[in-house]
Amino acid sequence: MRDFRDAKAMAQTLRQSLTTTKDVTISHSESLELVSKMLGVADWNTLSAMLQADRRNIIAPARLKTTTALYPAIPLRDLVPFPNATYPLFVGRDSTVKALNQAFDGGREVVVAIQREAGVDEPRLADVYEIGILAQLLEFEPLADGTFRVLTRGLKRVALRSFAVESAAYRAEVADVSEGAARDARDLIRRIYQRFQDYTTAHGILVPDIWLFFDQTRDPGQIADTVATHRRKT
User: Fold this and answer.
1) Which domains does the chain have, with CATH numbers?
2) How many angstroms separate the CA atoms of 174 and 172, rounded?
3) Helices and strands: H and E segment counts in the chain
């Protein structure tokens, strides 16, 4: 998984993705500012200074809260979920099914960990990305082939501190990820929203009126999540 040392590559990926999949064009400097704020840094100048100094331990302590919590967990092979989105999961591994049963018997919350390699059948902490999603379980449906369809809703990003099988079920210890609001991003958010509106109009995509949300938030991470959940399926 990329971290703040890959900020320029992340900015380039963001620009290319917006251009090719959403017909949205932003400048290189705008993409750098967005990536900086997504990483919890005030602006590109600050992040650039960190890059030059190669201070590897600056961001992680600032982003993670000290308290942790333990949840049932499931590894995910082929989907990157977002907070505030509802999506189905299809599971069949015994340790995953047991974790889901534990979650339904408890608070119906589960940590979704994204695998680095889909071919790993029994992933451990080194086999999943360090940032996952805390999700709420909505429905649990057995399928004819012996697997299960689980409807989930993403709640928030979490940082995995541990991920292992305990009592035949996956469990993860996680800490909250702080994605603080960016006070100076209002104009940029308005431009992104306008271009997102142009994109949805051009492609005939019907979405709820989300301007109120865009107008109230100053968190670029929430903006990116909202746009991603309404992108055109290809």
Assistant:
1) 4-40+179-229 (no CATH), 71-177 (2.30.130.40)
2) 6
3) 8, 6
SS3 breakdown of the chain: % helix, strand, coil, rounded to 5? 40, 30, 30
Answer yes or no: pTM beyond 0.85. no
- Residue 205 CA to its chain's centroid (Å): 23
Q: Which amino acid is present at 219?
A: D
Q: Please give the Cα distance from 49 to 206 (Å, whole number).
A: 42
Note the pLDDT tens digit of each residue in 48-84: 665 554 433 333 333 445 588 999 999 998 788 888 7
174: nearest Cα among 102, 58, 67: 67
d(CA 50, CA 35): 14
Signed CA dihedral, 188, 193, 198, 202: sign only: positive
